[in-house]
Design brief:
This protein is of the alpha+beta class and 424 residues long. The protein has helices at residues 2-11, 26-32, 58-69, 111-127, 139-147, 153-164, 168-177, 182-192, 199-205, 214-229, 292-298, 303-306, 323-336, 351-360, 371-376, 394-412; strands at 15-16, 22-24, 42-44, 50-53, 76-85, 97-106, 132-138, 234-235, 246-255, 265-273, 284-291, 311-315, 342-344, 365-369, 378-383, 389-393. The protein has two domains: 2-303, 2-Layer Sandwich (BirA Bifunctional Protein, domain 2); 305-411, Rossmann fold (3-Layer(aba) Sandwich). Helices cover 40% and strands 22% of the residues. Bound molecules: adenosine monophosphate. Adenosine monophosphate (AMP) binds at residues 56, 86, 88, 93-95, 98, 100, 265-268, 289, 291, 293-294.
Length: 424
């Protein structure tokens, strides 16, 4: 699964970037506020530095970009695959240590860049055979509405987090306390519930948002280019994303086959500005992150990959001190290891014990080398699934196994064709 995702992402022109597992805690609190500390594994090291195990990789990637990649050609397109840590209640598909696979386009957040990332995320899921539902929105819509209310930027961020967690009662309580009228609160709640093709039009018709809004224009441009990619999407004006640094387009992809239960969000992403916050120039960026564990949970491993090819080379010793057959067995194993996982006896076991081990590993072939074979320059090749065996030269044996493995490779890796689905 990892290999497939990497291959596709590299074909789209992204290069891998790796960052350390821990960072200064400040990197994560700078924009998200002290609240985020509750959700992190944070600690003081022996010199009193306040550190945290990374809860996500966007902030570390931007930090690394500012330290080392600022001079790289723009846009800078990178991807990462790494473990993340969050101090939250574990449940199905929600863990305290989990893996994210993500990408960032640094240096631009044009509609083209946003559409490319959304299309890439969707293409990866299609290639993995995962049924997914893509929701696209824009945090600017809700933020613009909230900015017209008597709220501080900090309070707006809190409301966005509450909306993200679907804690509506808390949203109503906070806005009521800030003297926002019930009618305005209802309009906001109506806006965040809007989904579907006509969501934007309905929001405009009901005057929940205004046509002059920059967010509306950006979203319209994005949807047009997404159309060029043929990616089916659902407009969802309620996507808030928990982290405060999202500035524009946001998207989430959910598993659509009902296999994950409540934690069915596979991917989240959007446009953001973090660099200025970390002391660099203001660099617009766009990124997404997949929850790799969730993909693994629902991914159906192709049958061919399950029965991965393995070979065992069996030295048939006359006595434990028989070195000649061991030497020949090692020579043959080295030839096979150029293209197929190959085992060789490491415990001076009997033939039957070695074949039992081969079975336990679901090996496809055993290559047996004894004194007689050695003398004649042949080996005995046994097909472990059928029990058939034959004597043939070492060269012919290696060629036979290689041929078989190649056929298998082709069957396992069909040419990738993006499957364009009907629009939802
Ligand atoms: P986020 O950085 O919160 O946008 O998360 C991106 C993706 O990571 C989500 O869509 C999930 O698929 C996955 N994810 C987030 N938190 C967890 C967790 N605790 N355990 C497993 N996967 C997670």
């Amino acid at each position: 699964m990892e290999e497939r995702i990497r291959t596709i992402t590299e074909r789209w022109g992204y290069e891998e970037i790796r960052t350390p597992t821990f960072e200064r805690a400040e990197l994560f609190t700078l924009k998200s506020g002290q609240e985020i500390l509750k959700e992190m594994y944070e600690f003081e090291d022996k010199s009193g530095r306040h550190l945290a195990l990374r809860p996500e990789l966007t902030a570390p990637v931007i930090r690394l970009y500012l330290n080392a990649l600022k001079m790289s050609p723009k846009p800078t397109k990178v991807y990462y695959f790494g473990n993340c840590f969050r101090y939250e209640e574990p449940q199905k598909a929600r863990y305290r240590e989990f893996w994210q696979f993500g990408t960032e386009i640094i240096g631009t957040d044009t509609a083209e860049a946003q559409a490319e990332l959304i299309a890439l995320a969707f293409t990866i899921l299609t290639a993995l055979g995962i049924e997914a539902e893509l929701h696209v929105g824009h945090v600017g819509l809700i933020r613009e509405v909230l900015r017209e209310k008597p709220l501080t930027e900090e309070e707006i961020n809190t409301v966005m987090r509450l909306i993200d967690k679907d804690q509506r009662d808390a949203v109503i309580a906070l806005l009521t306390e800030r003297n926002v009228t019930r009618q305005d609160i209802d309009k906001l709640l109506y806006l965040i519930d809007l989904t579907g093709r006509d969501a934007l039009q309905e929001a405009l018709d009901r005057e929940l948002i205004t046509a002059a809004s920059a967010a509306v224009r950006e979203l319209e441009q994005l949807l047009e280019i997404l159309g060029y990619y043929g990616i089916p999407y659902i407009l969802n004006l309620g996507i808030a994303r928990g982290l405060d640094y999202y500035t524009g387009m946001v998207f989430e992809i959910y598993e659509a086959g009902g296999k994950l239960g409540a934690q069915n969000q596979l991917c989240g992403g959007g446009s953001y500005r973090l660099a200025a916050l970390f002391g660099g120039d203001d660099v617009p960026s766009t990124g997404f992150a997949f929850g790799f564990d969730r993909l693994a949970e629902i991914y159906t491993v192709p049958a061919a990959a399950l029965t991965r090819q393995r070979v065992i080379v069996v030295p048939v010793r006359r006595d434990p001190a028989d070195r000649e057959v061991v030497r020949e067995a090692i020579r043959i194993a080295s030839l096979l290891r150029a293209f197929v996982p190959t085992h060789i006896d490491l415990m001076t076991r009997s033939i039957s014990a070695q074949l039992k081990y081969a079975n336990a590993l679901s090996s496809s072939f055993a290559v047996m080398v004894g004194t007689d074979e050695l003398r004649e320059g042949v080996v005995t090749l046994r097909n472990l699934s059928t029990g058939e065996q034959e004597r043939l030269s070492v060269e012919a044996c290696v060629a036979r196994i290689k041929n078989y493995c190649n056929l298998f490779e082709l069957a396992d890796k069909p040419a990738y064709k993006p499957e364009v689905r009907e629009e939802a």
